[in-house]
Design a protein that fits this description.
alpha/beta; Aspartate Aminotransferase, domain 2; Aspartate Aminotransferase, domain 1; 3 domains; seven-stranded mixed sheet; three-stranded antiparallel sheet; pyridoxal phosphate; O-phosphoseryl-tRNA(Sec) selenium transferase; tRNA-binding; protein biosynthesis
């Protein structure tokens, strides 16, 4: 309804009612205007009616929704199922063009505008979360691992003779396979044990650079968010080393946006040294379906170079999901979620510490990890070799998801490389342990239920061990 149609409506309905309706419509349009003018996440979240009005306005800008459109090409935004069309708000053309994921599509002005606005709003959120000097970013419809691969493939054109990627060890398959898929040889640098924490071995990183030759190294591939007792890499020091040897630096910031500490590390690393790009997951940081990531950096031309490396058009679903989510939350709503996550981290640490003490275990001291916690399972291991792995199964069947039980001595071969002590980020961590994390969206009730069920599982296991011992004596 535009002004002319509202005027015509006054012939059918009382003019005072129509003017009131027109003013209500205007309030929706003012919010949309501010978004278009500023390109930033609104401070306060929008109502669903405003968001749906906006998405419908975008959809009618795409040629597949033109009333008189006659499509004779191979890709005309045709959808067989009306349910699928509604699921995507009739934004069918996706984002980008065959040569550039960030390019504008002539026959999809609405979808192109969606893409540009999403990248702008996400950039604003990255700045709000702590990386103030980030220059550019884009949403890519791939999860973190493949997005890292895209970064490595882009660097290949800048450093054609490079074969190696320096990688401080983190026992997570996708980031390792990202390097293999891109065609490079990961150089695994083992972590050093400092107290209970596993930290970056900076001397070993520098030795590897000098041994292999800086010109033969594609980049250093570091990590922020991770499972305790590993902690975020020493980003400032690594960034300084990268600047010293003129080696690119790619950061796996998978679920680090939700942590002010992880974002501060990236900001400081870029300030004192070199960080070329950092990659983060959409689902882990913004509570949307799996399938998208954000590639961001401090040099706009390099980020554009990465986006142009993506072959073909791309799905708009991840961009649509994160834009709807951020418009719903608003900047204040997202900041509130981050604050609540931090509070619950302290609550989880307190509850795990009490539980560990009650069962003769300890909460591992990992102050440099702002998201994940670890509780030792020494006593359980001493009572029975199978009890540690059995605990993981018991928790899963009791609907405790996300908790990880890490036994000693596990080996895993990934793409020809064998990791000893796999899942513990170390060849010989001193004890088995259990992980739990306080990630965005967690509630106090989640923690309470987890601790209660974990307590019951530990008690059950110890009863079973005692019963087995008694039975063995009797036999």
């Amino acid at each position: 309804m535009n002004g002319e149609n509202f005027t015509l409506s006054e012939k059918l309905v009382s003019p005072s009612y129509v003017r009131q309706a027109s003013q209500a419509r205007r309030s929706h349009e003012l919010l949309i205007r501010q978004l278009l003018e500023q390109g930033k996440c609104p401070e306060e979240g929008w109502s669903e009616s405003t968001i749906e009005l906006f998405l419908n306005e975008l959809a009618v800008m795409d040629s597949n929704n033109f009333l008189g459109n006659c499509g004779v090409g191979e890709r005309e935004g045709r959808v067989a199922s009306s349910l699928v069309a509604r699921r995507h708000y009739r934004l069918i053309h996706g984002i980008g063009r065959s040569g550039d994921i960030a390019a504008v599509q002539p026959k999809a002005a609405g979808s192109s505008l969606l893409n540009k606005l999403t990248n702008s709003v996400v950039l604003d959120i990255l700045k709000l979360s702590g990386v103030r000097s980030v220059a550019s970013c884009f949403v890519v419809p791939m999860a973190t691992g493949m997005s890292l691969t895209l970064c490595f493939l882009t660097l290949r054109h800048r450093r054609p003779q490079a074969r190696f990627i320096i990688w401080p060890r983190i026992d997570q398959k996708s980031c390792f396979k990202a390097m293999i898929t891109a065609g490079f040889e990961p150089v695994v640098v083992e972590n050093v044990l400092e107290g209970d924490e596993l930290r970056t071995d900076l001397e070993a990183v520098e030795r590897k650079i000098e041994e292999l030759g800086a010109e033969n190294i594609l980049c250093v591939h570091s990590t922020t968010s991770c499972f305790a007792p590993r902690v975020p890499d020493r980003l400032e020091e690594l960034a300084t080393v990268c600047a010293k040897y003129n080696i690119p630096h790619i950061v796996n910031n998978a679920y680090g946006v939700q942590s002010s500490k992880c974002m501060h590390l990236i900001q400081q690393g870029a300030r004192v040294g070199r960080i070329d790009a950092f990659v983060q997951s959409l689902d882990k940081n913004f509570m949307v379906p799996v399938g998208g990531a954000i590639i961001a950096g401090f040099d706009e031309s390099f980020i554009q170079e990465i986006s142009k490396m993506y072959p073909g058009r791309a799905s708009a679903s991840p961009s649509l999901d994160v834009l709807i989510t951020l418009l719903t939350l608003g900047a204040s709503g997202y900041k509130k979620l981050l604050s609540e996550r931090k509070e619950i981290y302290s609550y989880l640490a307190q509850e795990l510490k009490s539980l560990a003490s009650a069962h003769g275990e300890k909460l591992l001291h990992t102050p440099h990890n702002p998201i994940s916690l670890a509780m030792s399972l020494d006593g359980l291991q001493a009572e029975s070799d199978k009890a540690v792995t059995q605990l993981g199964s018991m928790l899963f069947t009791r609907q405790v998801s996300g908790a990880r039980v890490i036994p000693l001595g596990k080996e895993q071969t990934i793409s020809g490389h064998t990791f000893r002590g796999f899942m513990s980020h170390s060849e010989a961590y001193p004890c088995p342990y259990l992980n739990a994390a306080s990630a965005v969206g967690i509630t106090r009730e989640d923690v309470t239920q987890c601790i209660r069920r974990l307590d019951k599982c530990l008690k059950t296991l110890r009863k079973d061990v005692i019963f087995s011992l008694i039975k063995g004596i009797e036999d």
